[in-house]
């Protein structure tokens, strides 16, 4: 029979920094509906891998395909359009925008009505200037059709509802006034608002206490139940083991083991390189 195609296919991916092989020819896949986690010691290349998959930085070798389309040659904005949304390790909510506007901002990169404006923004060459341009557009209000406006509002509401207890009462408050955990929730809601094929999360529980971490785990399990494909970097092993279909272990820019969580957890190579330290 036909082998079902992976959603994300990473093939012999490479990236160096001043001769240091941060990512040294790694290959892995994420299937539709699959939750895959990358673990490994500090400096093993996890964040660099996410940066390469999302186009934050370009690779020096190898190829990446999403749904059969090559994305390793595209920039971050194009990759987002293809259906990859991410959050960052340190959180990147726009401080002066409200929760609702922060969630909405992400959607403007994928909506058709905003396309002429987006191309305009892209004329500004620099990614950050383009981002600022999009923000400006988001603030002055894209002249989206009424239907699109309704779609935006409904999606924003739905994603805030996901974190209702936490974000519901704060939806009109500026991000700077939120707790750290709520800023991170806002960021996840923003990534989800574009209905990504692949959600990429870089340490979503970093800086969170155990109860906040448990809450994120619940939300990840909900997303998994909804069939959301997720590529996750996370230090908290209990969370990784609870949510992942597959775990990839990196060390020194290479994949030293991968497999089902319960298998990886007891792999002597993994215990030596990671869990034992
Ligand atoms: P991890 O996420 O597993 O902690 P990283 O992907 O952040 O690891 O880093 C992998 C290696 O690449 C480290 O040695 C790190 O110092 C190096 N590195 C990462 N980003 C850069 C950069 N922008 N410039 C120089 N070196 C970098």
TrEMBL record:
<dbReference type="GO" id="GO:1903805">
    <property type="term" value="P:L-valine import across plasma membrane"/>
</dbReference>
<dbReference type="Pfam" id="PF00005">
    <property type="entry name" value="ABC_tran"/>
</dbReference>
<dbReference type="InterPro" id="IPR051120">
    <property type="entry name" value="ABC_AA/LPS_Transport"/>
</dbReference>
<dbReference type="GO" id="GO:0042941">
    <property type="term" value="P:D-alanine transmembrane transport"/>
</dbReference>
<feature type="domain" description="ABC transporter">
    <location>
        <begin position="8"/>
        <end position="277"/>
    </location>
</feature>
<dbReference type="InterPro" id="IPR003439">
    <property type="entry name" value="ABC_transporter-like_ATP-bd"/>
</dbReference>
<dbReference type="GO" id="GO:0005304">
    <property type="term" value="F:L-valine transmembrane transporter activity"/>
</dbReference>
<dbReference type="GO" id="GO:1903806">
    <property type="term" value="P:L-isoleucine import across plasma membrane"/>
</dbReference>
<keyword id="KW-0067">ATP-binding</keyword>
<dbReference type="Pfam" id="PF12399">
    <property type="entry name" value="BCA_ABC_TP_C"/>
</dbReference>
<dbReference type="GO" id="GO:0015808">
    <property type="term" value="P:L-alanine transport"/>
</dbReference>
<dbReference type="GO" id="GO:0016887">
    <property type="term" value="F:ATP hydrolysis activity"/>
</dbReference>
<dbReference type="GO" id="GO:0005886">
    <property type="term" value="C:plasma membrane"/>
</dbReference>
<dbReference type="InterPro" id="IPR027417">
    <property type="entry name" value="P-loop_NTPase"/>
</dbReference>
<dbReference type="GO" id="GO:0005524">
    <property type="term" value="F:ATP binding"/>
</dbReference>
<keyword id="KW-0547">Nucleotide-binding</keyword>
<protein>
    <submittedName>
        <fullName>ATP-binding cassette domain-containing protein</fullName>
    </submittedName>
</protein>
<dbReference type="GO" id="GO:0015192">
    <property type="term" value="F:L-phenylalanine transmembrane transporter activity"/>
</dbReference>
<dbReference type="GO" id="GO:0015188">
    <property type="term" value="F:L-isoleucine transmembrane transporter activity"/>
</dbReference>
<dbReference type="InterPro" id="IPR032823">
    <property type="entry name" value="BCA_ABC_TP_C"/>
</dbReference>
<keyword id="KW-0813">Transport</keyword>
<dbReference type="InterPro" id="IPR003593">
    <property type="entry name" value="AAA+_ATPase"/>
</dbReference>
């Amino acid at each position: 029979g036909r082998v079902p195609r992976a959603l994300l296919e990473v093939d012999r991916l490479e990236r160096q920094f001043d001769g240091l092989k941060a990512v040294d020819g790694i290959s892995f896949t994420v299937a539709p509906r699959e939750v895959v986690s990358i673990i490994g010691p500090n400096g093993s290349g996890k964040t660099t891998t996410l940066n390469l998959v999302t186009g934050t930085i370009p690779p020096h070798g190898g190829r990446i395909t999403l749904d059969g389309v090559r994305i390793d040659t595209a920039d971050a904005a194009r990759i987002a359009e293809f259906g990859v949304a991410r959050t960052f390790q340190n959180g990147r909510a726009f401080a002066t925008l409200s929760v609702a506007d922060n969630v909405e901002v992400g959607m403007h990169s994928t909506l058709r009505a905003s396309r002429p404006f987006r191309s305009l923004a892209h004329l500004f060459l620099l990614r950050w200037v383009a981002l600022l341009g999009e923000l400006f557009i988001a603030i002055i209000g894209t002249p989206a059709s009424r239907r699109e406006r309704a779609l935006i509002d409904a999606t924003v509401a739905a994603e805030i509802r996901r974190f209702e207890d936490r974000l519901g009462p704060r939806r009109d408050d500026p991000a700077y006034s939120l707790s750290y955990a709520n800023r991170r929730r806002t960021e996840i809601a923003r990534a989800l608002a574009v209905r990504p094929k692949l959600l990429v999360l870089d340490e979503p529980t970093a800086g969170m206490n155990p109860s906040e971490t448990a809450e994120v785990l619940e939300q990840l399990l909900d997303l998994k139940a909804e069939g959301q494909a997720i590529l996750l970097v996370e230090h908290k092993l209990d969370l990784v083991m609870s949510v992942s279909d597959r775990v990839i272990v990196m060390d020194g820019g290479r994949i030293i083991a991968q497999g089902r969580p319960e298998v990886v957890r007891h792999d002597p190579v993994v215990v030596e390189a990671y869990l034992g330290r």
